[in-house]
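Let us begin with a simple case.
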Amino acid sequence: MRVTDTKISRVLILLLCSFLILLFNKKNMAQSQETETVELPELCTMSKHLQAILDSLVARESKCHYFKKSLIWTITISEQQEDKYAIKVTMVSSMQVLKTGNYSKPFGYFYLGDILFEVEGVYVESLFKICKNKKQFTLKKRKMPCLEDYSMWFYDYENGEITLKEAYPLDCK
């Protein structure tokens, strides 16, 4: 089989197009890393039951090889029905907000020891109180969510009771 100039030209054009697509995607990824500065109120006097759960999760995760104190714990609250909420707890490497679609910006933060928690979604007064202190945070704006692999827990909250629904803890080798 003989390689012709036409075949070589087609291969070179294909390689050039692939290179341009990769370059374009890299440029879009850089643009999708825009940031937004927000001022968030500190949350205090949260539910003692939630605090005990979070204390135990932090104690468990702090024994894991991937754990760093710089990780930001994220609590996402969504309303399922009137007075019934779903709570998701996980960790991320940086605060982020999606630029498109349904997203929720954090509405507050708190520290347990030196571990930062950001809380987003629906504000539930029986879980958190908003304090007077405020702090500025930088959110990374993304077109697509940044998928990270950390442990995750899902709870139901109803009538003052928090119940574990599902847990996906990572192996702590």
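The second case is a distinct protein. As before, the sequence precedes its structure tokens.
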Amino acid sequence: MSNPFHTLAVSSQLVAIVMAAAGSAGAQSAPVVFQGFAHAPIGIATLHVDPARAALDVRGLRSTGEDGFAVKRDGATSWTARIEVPLGGAPPVNLVWSALADGRPIGTGLLRQNGDMFEMSGVFTGGTTTRTFSAHVYNNGRLVGAVGSQPPAASAFVPIDICRVFTDLCRVVAEFHTLPDGACMVRIAGARAVPIRLPNGTVVTGNELRLVEEVSPAGHYPYLGFDTMVIRSDAPSIAILSETLR
């Protein structure tokens, strides 16, 4: 299989990859319970709970980005995880988190390392004929900048210092939510405020970036929640330090 991160902007291909990954969940070994939820490995990933760190270690990931884990809860509307990701490897690290409803991906967040920057984009598969999204930057909970009507291929750029704790280690909060109007939102947050470049080129300083699907008020969105989160990376390993799914 070709590297899925090479074609992040092609939503149809990404949907196929995520569905295939979800279908392989649990094929390699039994699920592992972490913070009350069963996590099933995807591909050749192995899962191990480290009691000393209160963390879920996800190991053995290939550089193709096919491996990771899936976690399920019927009727979920919110997923939040604090993820530890190694930096400085080859290839540069990529992280993908996707929400599925009835086996269909409804939204995906993507982080792709490019030097000392993360390129963040989203793929949203619902609501409107023309799929657009808005990007919002917050600093300690306060909105500092936003832009709307962005096309599916648009990206925002975030310095890795937003989450860097050591030269070769990042701890980032990744989230997925379905909002009351049926729109999907992906979010990242870090401990430091950094200059974030929005898709239109505007630069604002904050420690949180949200990408929100734009759903027409007259439209109809079939999914108001999700039942599965699929998380994948091409780093050799990642760790989940905390997680909520509700």
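Residues 11-23 form the longest helix (13 residues). Residues 4-235 form one domain.
Keep these points in mind for the review questions at the end of the chapter.
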